[in-house]
Amino acid sequence: MHGYRENDFYSSEAEKAEFQKKLSQGYVILDKFILHLNNMSKQPLSCDVANDAKIQKMLDLSAALIGFIGEFAPAWSFRRWYLTQLLRQNAPVQVLEQSINREINLLTDTMLKYAKFYATWQHRLLLISQIACKLSASFYESVLAKEFVFIDKILAMDGRNFHCWRHINYLKQMTPNLTFQNKLTYPEYLTYLIKEDFSNFSAWHERALLDAFDTSEEIDMLHEAIYTDPEDSSIWEYYKHILTKYTPLRLLKTWRTGGSGGKSSVYLMFSDYVTRLKIAECDDSAGEYTYECVEGDALKTPSAYSRVWKINGEFKILTQVTIYAETYGKCTDVFYKRLVSTDAITSDNKVTHKFVINVNGVNEKNVVDFDKKIDQTIVISELNFIDQLLKIEPNSMYLHLAKIFILKHSRENCMNQITDCYYKLMQLDTARVNYYKHENSLSQITARLTEVSEHIDISGNYLSGIPYALSVKLFGCQSLNLSNCGLTCSTVDGWHIPLIRTLQILDISSNNLNSLDTLTTSVVLLDVRGNPLNALKSSPIFITEKLAFEFRNPNLKIIVADASNDGWDWAAYAGAEWLCTIANEALCTMTNLSPLLANYLTRLSGTQNLLIRQT
């Protein structure tokens, strides 16, 4: 297995015979453990597990079995059950402390031999978070102090052990005020681990969590690491983090829309996810406000995450408003939040941000910007540093990507340099040519969209979707042309067009879409000509039902499709009740159309065999 042959495991026949002997003994212990466990399950639970001979026998068997199979979860589960029963039966404190110390010693001995067993790390965590914490504070602190000594030993063996780093993150949440853990947060200690191995992604990540550091010193250390191994991805991830570290939550754009009965709505687009929103002051309003969390095409509950929020109210002129946006701060590793349930992990880690904005104005910035400590002098210096390395390593993909990253967020017009880097990457990394085409198109489109207009045409660009950063730029437009962009169903899935709530007309003609299941948007007119839509190739019996599912947007009034180019059965569709053919001369006579929709349909007057749904 994995390239090893059976003979590779043994240096001699004697060693092989010794292993087979231990294996036989281990299976005997396993059989005894299972037999005793089955017998115990048929008998009533002892009222004094600490002095029950059968249970003590099981503890001995489980310890021996763990020595044979360190990741045998049932053995650890039994030992955890035993400790839990001691707590439930109010065993003497001395018995509890001795049992916990014995368990920690067994874990430590096992994990120093086998440091990457999930079962042992899980058992250790549960022992600390659910059992040891129930005893006195002094005993609990002594247990935690031993934990950091143990962690030091594990990291000395392997500084990249991700199990250990996860354990560290959990302990730091459990022990925010204990002084003996400080060694694990000192930059010097992390620097030592990084210099031992520049590929220590975990140490780089932990260093990124430090609240204070000297930017120039960090960059100097990164330069040393980059010179050593410019193809190490962990170094470049931290490099980008340093340049953008303390970027706060920002309000990227506001947009006000009118409503009926004096009511109106204000859309707010943030740079990160917001969990709660509240207006503190408003200089011109009446009545109550309601808040809607907008994500995808659905309006979710205010407790959900969203980067786009909608405020409804009776606003008159509304020039200035003060709002508070709440986000989550640092939190425990998701793995541990799912694994344990303990009061030691508090949910009170939210951060509140205050914004005073002019709602009728436009607040727009890059979604990602440089850290406030990174000035233009540092940007120029880093570009020179990258250019010097490119002279030595002209075919390094990481260097080209780093240059693009810096150029995108600099204040200069660098589109030609960015495009040159992407063309070079297409030559170096042929497996990701389409990705680089997409990113290059996005860069050009974003640079071009300096102002929002009613009609935006970005057709003919290669796009694999509409990311959030671009949807911010597009918010406010009413008609969007995405024709001939190479869109497929896989690229449509997850795009951010639904966040553009001002959009009325969407042209996605001449793409490669065969389904619109994931295209949920609030547009009124949808142009799907030149797409091989499967639903429109169904039999007349199912066409109405399938189309109703595909176009399940209640706001959608008109679907424009070219029947002749897609091989549809024209006679079948003409018979559907809600479908009708519109002759060229009748396009402009459709009733109840806004000028925007009427103008769009007028431009189609020369097209033959249009299939239009009008509701």
From TrEMBL:
EC number: 2.5.1.60
Domain of life the protein comes from: Eukaryota
Pfam families associated with the record: PPTA
Reaction(s) the record says it catalyses: geranylgeranyl diphosphate + L-cysteinyl-[protein] = S-geranylgeranyl-L-cysteinyl-[protein] + diphosphate
Gene Ontology molecular-function annotations: Rab geranylgeranyltransferase activity
GO cellular component: Rab-protein geranylgeranyltransferase complex
Keywords for the protein's UniProt record, in alphabetical order: Prenyltransferase, Repeat, Transferase
The family this protein is said to belong to: Belongs to the protein prenyltransferase subunit alpha family.
Role description: Catalyzes the transfer of a geranyl-geranyl moiety from geranyl-geranyl pyrophosphate to cysteines occuring in specific C-terminal amino acid sequences.
Protein name: Geranylgeranyl transferase type-2 subunit alpha
